[in-house]
């Protein structure tokens, strides 16, 4: 500073202007140094660092690079140079500022703090990205926790920045946080509730990324794609995105289909309705026919022997079908379907398989098929279920039974056609 001032005085500049000009020269030199340092950091240091990161075997540093952590660190260089240059302006008064050095220190440190916030934010995002590459991230997502860390750091740094600009100790402002606790709890109510809910969801393993959940209240029926501090994002099967408040998953009920996938079987539970007018005892011709059916051969043989023994032991006159025990077409049909399910290659044999009769209704007698497919994938499950009922509906008539259905326009047309023919004859 004295060198430039003396140089200007020696070249005919008066004392006072020479002092101001020397400060101007120093400021220009500092700006040039900042520009050159920033250029060197970006064009040389950052490029060398990028090349090193791209060529090594580690993956985590690539995430830091993609998130721009190193780019944001570079922005600290000019601020650090300006901060270190502040003593050059010691005891200089400028307009309303009593000490220019103090002003430069405050502004430079404020810029460093703000730039550090962006570096910290990018670093936290990088930690989350690195963690998501691990299998444990599906079970224990930490995005909500990291968002809480971000929020706390933002609040603390904001207080430090304000205190720095005011020239006060941060402890003075921090001591006033207790009085603002009610305000903060009101403003950040969702964040606080979401944070608590996130801890409960993850600690109790209630929800994972990739789980299929149903929550009709919020129109959610699909896969969980993200769990954050305040919300859970669900992608429905029609590809729409539903955002659910995290605390709602604790306060309200939802269905998680993860257990079905882990269990290794997806339930098939659907009835068919039999016209009760078609139900009756099996004739001898029907029994002989049923003996030729692969899934009924052993059943018919064993059942015939069982019924014959029962009727003989009880000395029952079987000339009337109402006496004793006899095979029915509906019972034989249930036995056939049961054996058909046991031999189906795409059903889980370790889970319940049942063909049961439900109470009769105005739509007929419901025969419910209850079993589990071995493939839980949706499209495969629907194909297996459709194949089973295609077959069952097709073989009903072989047992002298009829499927119940409401009369259609075709049925009414056939009735009218029959009435017309009868009237003509």
Quickly describe the structure.
This protein is α+β, with helices and mostly antiparallel strands and 425 residues long. It has helices at 2-10, 15-55, 60-66, 69-74, 76-85, 100-132, 136-139, 143-166, 170-174, 181-187, 189-203, 248-251, 258-263, 284-291, 297-313, 329-342, 378-395, 409-424; strands at 212-215, 220-227, 231-236, 241-245, 255-256, 266-274, 354-357, 365-373.
Give an overview in words.
The chain has 425 residues and is α+β, with helices and mostly antiparallel strands. Helices cover 57% and strands 11% of the residues. The chain folds into three domains: 1-133, no CATH class; 137-261, SH3 type barrels, CATH 2.30.30; 266-280 and 328-410, Alpha-Beta Plaits (2-Layer Sandwich), CATH 3.30.70. The protein has helices spanning 2-10, 15-55, 60-66, 69-74, 76-85, 100-132, 136-139, 143-166, 170-174, 181-187, 189-203, 248-251, 258-263, 284-291, 297-313, 329-342, 378-395, 409-424, and strands at residues 212-215, 220-227, 231-236, 241-245, 255-256, 266-274, 354-357, 365-373. It has a five-stranded antiparallel sheet with strand order 4-3-2-1-5. Strand 2 and strand 3 form a beta hairpin. It is rod-shaped. The N and C termini lie far apart (128 Å). The mean pLDDT is 81.
Question: Features of this protein?
Answer:
Alpha-Beta Plaits, 3 domains, alpha+beta, three-stranded antiparallel sheet, cell membrane, 18 helices, five-stranded antiparallel sheet, SH3 type barrels, 425 residues, MS_channel_C
